[in-house]
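JOB MANIFEST
job_type = single_chain_structure
chain_count = 1
residues = 217
[input]
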Amino acid sequence: MNISACRKAKLSWRKLHSVKRVNIKFIWRMGIVFFLSATALASLRATAQENPFPAAASVLQPEAYVSLQPVPRGHAFEVAVVAKISPGFHINAHQPSEDYLIPTKVTAELPAGLFVVETNYPRGVMRAFRFSKTPLRVYESSFTVLMKLRTNGTAPIGPQKIKLTVGYQACNQDACLPPTKIPVAADLEIAAADTPAKPAHADIFSSGSAAKPSAKP
């Protein structure tokens, strides 16, 4: 074999060796990526199994309604917070049966010229749970909180919004989620004092569906 042929053979061998090294490095790197991805996926699955509960703020779905539209200046009216509770969960009543339980409470941020007269909460029902030695007073399925309000002569005429916050703690048969607060708003129209007040949402504010006065703020 002449010198030129030898040199070509050496170059071919070096190229082949270089390609093999590149392939080995590529395979090794891909193996590491696969391992890390599999580890992360296993970790996510373990976390999901350890925390099977939903977010606390997703358990309650509140909506707010106003009893009159429009609301004349100097007139009394009501706001109802109607809240649905996710199946399998309950929340503590406003007047819980044990001191350590966090009560459900609705608070309002009012426009100028409006003020709260009183807030009425349903009493709730007594239920037994595996995590408690004694039955607890709770709300389940759904509940309605009624707020009685009044406007005065300085209330701004036109569309207004009452910002409400519902604070609560949700539990199921085995454990409780962290306490949380979620917002809900009631839209209303304030009109001049001599404007006729028209009832709204009669199905919610009828005597059969309204909350019985059991507790004030």
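[summary]
Residues 56-205 form a domain with the Immunoglobulin-like fold (CATH 2.60.40.1250).
Residues 3-50 form the longest helix (48 residues).
exit_status = 0
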